[in-house]
Automatic annotation (TrEMBL):
<dbReference type="GO" id="GO:0005737">
    <property type="term" value="C:cytoplasm"/>
</dbReference>
<dbReference type="GO" id="GO:0070475">
    <property type="term" value="P:rRNA base methylation"/>
</dbReference>
<keyword id="KW-0698">rRNA processing</keyword>
<dbReference type="InterPro" id="IPR046887">
    <property type="entry name" value="RsmE_PUA-like"/>
</dbReference>
<comment type="similarity">
    <text>Belongs to the RNA methyltransferase RsmE family.</text>
</comment>
<dbReference type="InterPro" id="IPR015947">
    <property type="entry name" value="PUA-like_sf"/>
</dbReference>
<dbReference type="InterPro" id="IPR046886">
    <property type="entry name" value="RsmE_MTase_dom"/>
</dbReference>
<keyword id="KW-0963">Cytoplasm</keyword>
<dbReference type="GO" id="GO:0070042">
    <property type="term" value="F:rRNA (uridine-N3-)-methyltransferase activity"/>
</dbReference>
<comment type="function">
    <text>Specifically methylates the N3 position of the uracil ring of uridine 1498 (m3U1498) in 16S rRNA. Acts on the fully assembled 30S ribosomal subunit.</text>
</comment>
<keyword id="KW-0949">S-adenosyl-L-methionine</keyword>
<keyword id="KW-0808">Transferase</keyword>
<keyword id="KW-0489">Methyltransferase</keyword>
<dbReference type="InterPro" id="IPR006700">
    <property type="entry name" value="RsmE"/>
</dbReference>
<dbReference type="Pfam" id="PF20260">
    <property type="entry name" value="PUA_4"/>
</dbReference>
<feature type="domain" description="Ribosomal RNA small subunit methyltransferase E methyltransferase">
    <location>
        <begin position="73"/>
        <end position="234"/>
    </location>
</feature>
<dbReference type="InterPro" id="IPR029028">
    <property type="entry name" value="Alpha/beta_knot_MTases"/>
</dbReference>
Length: 245
């Protein structure tokens, strides 16, 4: 059954007004009145619904059954320095598929893109759409959070994760050597831009408890390092390896 995300407010009643984005998908899928779909609020609530009205840009649905779905992935915060071009789109899409629970885009000294304030909200809305579509496609019941673009210092200062890892090729530890045997409450993974971190940024990260780690002899790209880290952590502690039942 086709699944779509909608705001928690929209699912409070038994009659649901569908967004234009959802209606567009329904039209493309050639669904009509009477068809049944699943609407999710991104917080774990699922509503089995029947379409009761469908026009070109508007639609309504009636809630038939409400239920809760628990996500068992390991909590991962991905603190990602802005990469070049549209690589952040890929990071958000694949990170969502791999169980990242929160994305924190940051501006670093060597970040090439410099988003203007007037374009930041436009870019944010695009990123949110990418996250929603990726979560819908991979059937996640929860939507990952997307923090506003921040400086590196402010993002690190607000980090609450128990395990804090920084992918850095110099003076770092093998990842396996720093992973605890017991499952931690969650992990934050810090990824630098194409040009890497400056020595000052490495010092700041260390001050906030981030441990520099490496995967092995190869240096991964900024847009793929987070995928590798998320996969390893989900296999070790999350739902990719069966650590959580």
């Amino acid at each position: 059954m086709h699944r779509f995300f909608i705001t928690p407010e929209a699912l409070r009643g038994e009659q649901v007004t569908l967004t234009e984005e959802i209606v567009h998908h329904l039209v493309v899928l050639r669904l009509s009145e009477g068809a049944e779909i699943v609407l999710l609020d991104g917080l774990g609530t699922l509503c089995h619904c029947r379409l009761t009205g469908l026009a070109k840009k508007t639609g309504t649905a009636t809630v038939l059954v409400r239920s809760k779905e628990i996500e068992r992935s390991f909590p991962i915060e991905l603190i990602q320095a802005l990469p070049k071009a549209d690589k952040m789109d890929l990071i958000l899409q694949k990170g969502t598929e791999l169980g990242v629970t929160r994305f924190l885009p940051v501006q670093t000294n060597r970040s090439v893109p410099r988003l203007e304030p007037k374009r930041e909200e436009q870019r944010r809305q695009r990123w949110l759409r990418i996250i929603r579509e990726a979560a819908r496609q991979c059937r996640r019941p929860l939507l990952p959070q997307l923090a506003p673009l921040a400086t590196l210092d402010s993002a690190l200062a607000g980090c609450q994760s128990a395990l804090r890892l920084m992918l850095w090729e110099e003076g770092s530890h093998a990842l396996e050597s720093v992973l605890p045997q017991q499952i931690p409450a969650g992990a934050a993974v810090l990824i630098g831009p194409e040009g890497g971190f400056s020595s000052e940024e490495v010092a700041v990260a260390r001050r906030f408890g981030f441990v520099p780690v490496r995967f092995g002899p190869r240096i991964l790209r900024s847009e793929t390092a987070g995928f590798a880290a998320a996969t390893i952590l989900q296999y070790r502690y999350g739902d990719l390896g069966g650590a959580q039942s």
